[in-house]
Design a protein that fits this description.
With 272 residues, this protein is α+β, with helices and mostly antiparallel strands. It has 6 helices and 12 strands. Bound molecules: biotin.
């Protein structure tokens, strides 16, 4: 198994926008928590953190992110967008595009985005993104983008309760994946889509997200704090919210929650 070598990664990332400063940890609580701390200390844009394992890996909606050693990627990056809060809310969408394109390079034609920014292969989650923002008054101080990718885990190595819903890149690609190669491509694609967002705005990020999303034009249910809304997913709002068309033809923008594609129900009785 190819192990992570911080020195070699540093050499390959020297002078790059994302990755020019790299903090490496054999074990840490959460790379996002530490990135937040470093951000508050003034760490520059493009600083990245990589851990071989996390003891308190954090997922969206206060979940735990399974973070064993030796097989996966756990990374966080610090970004300092200047254009304000709206642009900062678009960064996780750009990150979803970057992650999906990266994984698609290793599993051509198979990686899809599930709103807001999970990456799925074969309908199972292979990558999750947790973005956290620090404001200073009305200005955005920094954004931490944390990305976890299941890379070389075998099916049996997943905890029982997620075996049906999670997968790893190696399982889907049918070969062991080089984690350093994947990390470099992830940062390169993240740089590309972050630059696109900063320089040209949200339009092409959104377009690429829509092309890579498996939800658009499907009937979906979004659950947030035990409340569910459903409708046809018809677009992505400026702030990354999913736009639903509800049963009474109302447009509704949903900003947080867990999305599931609902199976189309055949409302015709047999014989009609
Ligand atoms: C999710 O899909 O729920 C988001 C998962 C995000 C996991 C990554 S692993 C690196 C970074 N550090 C964390 O504690 N979480 C993110």
């Amino acid at each position: 198994m190819t192990s992570l070598n911080a020195e070699s990664l540093r050499k390959q990332l020297a002078g790059k926008m994302i990755g020019h400063r790299l903090y490496y940890y054999d074990e840490i609580g959460s790379t996002n928590d530490e990135a937040f701390r470093l951000g508050e200390e003034g760490a520059p844009e493009g600083t990245v953190l990589i851990a071989e394992s996390q003891t308190s890996g954090k997922g969206r909606m206060q979940r735990v992110w399974y973070s064993p050693a030796g097989a996966n990627i756990y990374t966080s990056m610090i970004l300092r967008p200047l254009a304000g809060r709206m642009q900062a809310t678009q960064i996780p969408i750009a990150a979803g595009v970057a992650a999906a394109e990266t994984l698609n390079e290793f599993c051509p034609g198979k990686a899809w985005i599930k709103w807001p920014n999970d990456v799925l292969i074969g309908g199972k989650k292979v990558c999750g993104i947790l973005a956290q923002m620090k404001m200073s008054g009305q200005a955005v101080d920094f954004v931490v983008v944390g990305i976890g990718v299941n890379v070389n885990l075998t099916r049996e190595q997943f905890p029982q309760d997620i075996q049906e819903i999670a997968t790893a890149l190696a399982i889907e690609a049918g070969r062991e994946i080089s984690r350093p190669e994947l990390i470099i491509r992830l940062y390169e694609n993240m740089t590309k889509w972050y630059r696109e967002l900063i320089q040209n705005g949200f339009a092409s990020v959104r377009e690429r997200w829509l092309n890579r999303s498996e939800m658009i034009d499907k009937t979906v249910s979004i659950v947030f704090h035990n409340e569910a809304v459903s409708g046809k997913a018809v677009g992505l709002d400026e702030d990354g919210s999913l736009i639903l068309l509800t049963a009474n033809n109302q447009k509704m923008s949903v900003s947080a929650g867990d999305a599931t594609i609902l199976k189309e129900v055949n409302t015709y009785a047999a014989g009609n």
